Amino acid sequence: MFSKLLHTFENFILKFLPFYFYPKKSKVFTLSKFRAGLKCDSLLWYYYNHNKIYKTKEYKQNPYRNPQFDQLIFYAQSLFKDAISIQTTYPEKSAKITSDMLTHKKPIFNAGVLYNDLFSKNGILVPSANKDKWDIIEIKHTNTVKKDSFMELAYQVYVAELCGLKIQKCYVLLINSDYYCNNSMDIEPSKFFIKQDITESVRTSIPFMKTKLEHFKKVIHAQNPLKKSLNHSCKTPKSCTINSFCWGELQEGNIFELRESNYLPQVLLQSDIKYITDIPDNVELSPKQKIQISCSKTQKPYFHIQNLKKTFSRLKYPYYFLDFETINPPIPVFNHSKPFQHIPFLFSLHIEREINGNIEHYEYINDGETEPREKILLLLKELIQANGSIICYNDVFEKKCIREATQLFPEYQDWFNSIVNNFFDLSIPFRNFDYYHPGQRGSASLKSVFPVLTELNYNHLNINNGLAANQEFLKMKLSKLSKQEKEKIKTNLLEYCKLDTYAMVMIVQKLKDLVDLHK
Asked: Among positive and negative, which fits the CA dihedral 199, 200, 202, 203?
């Protein structure tokens, strides 16, 4: 009992004592650094030697990476009775507390193991059914096992066994995306999570992991970063925290902006070709790539008038320009929903009832307290009739949101059936390269198309992308904010969604004007 109280006190001291009293952290190789190495040698070098991952602009601009993290851990802990949770972030202290707690033969969250300069923090260390052995369970915030998970757990097993632990099984605790939540205030952890055995895949990965680990040791102890490993994954998704270090020398029009490029940029780099305009004529290219290169060289847009005419001949008045903003949190926050299900909380609708007619605007945003889908269906049914065209940028998304909402509120099913064939996907002419402007830089997104056609953009908005909108609404719903703070978020969200539909209004107008010029 005294030992347990002592360790609780040590954890408290480490967590709350002012920074200048903390013991200095030693420079050890951690699981997070191992993850960085799996992504990129340069990322690992900067992380280990300068800790620049957490000092970059990209990192600081994403403060809501996982607003439900604590709640996920809470649900996971409820599955293990008498579990011990280790709070310290200091490797030596974590390893010491873990070592002392092993004798209790209870599940340990954040169990730390340290062997020389190799440190691993395990999600959950659980006593195995086999005497004197342990299972490692990694908590994942996704519904699928990613390839890197095998390597990460291989690292954890390797370090644990170096420390003398006998590891029996390796599991991942995944989120069950089929779990239907009737009451968001009463999540059932035993149904919410799925435990998947990946022991065989982890054991198979250990030899390759050890090879990678030896390479990583050379990387971190090098005087300077190794040769920059520029590749397409650096910008897909566009989230690497050290892009500015590796990509600083590359300007707009570089080969990584090439549409449908796959591994072509790597081949071109070997010939020291860095820009689209320098690609030789003898390189095998797709039709879209040829258009993009030609536009980059001439700095003029390309358009296929006949295809544009055919596309826009489908449009019939009235025009309904519709856009949703949604949340898809891992833990449902609305009743009658599933993990990761997109739930619309906001819509913007511009209506043009006749040619050269006035543009009307309607909108709705949920207050964060009530069910949003029924209200959205009610309002849209009043506003959108069975005639006309419903214009969306990637209409599959809006149709899916409405379809799922009508499954919950079937009284709107007949209305949806009457309009479902009226949807028009405005992204098609841009994805097909029936129109392409060099300013799009290979992208067919609304944020890329809108500025080149109208000279307007989203830069002045406080919220200027869908991910930020998602996160801000979750912040409004889950955090304790003042009424003024909530109203500010709602205003910012409304402005962003309104610009999305207004952008579509302007794009249709510009392209129809272009078609009219070439009659």
From this structure: positive
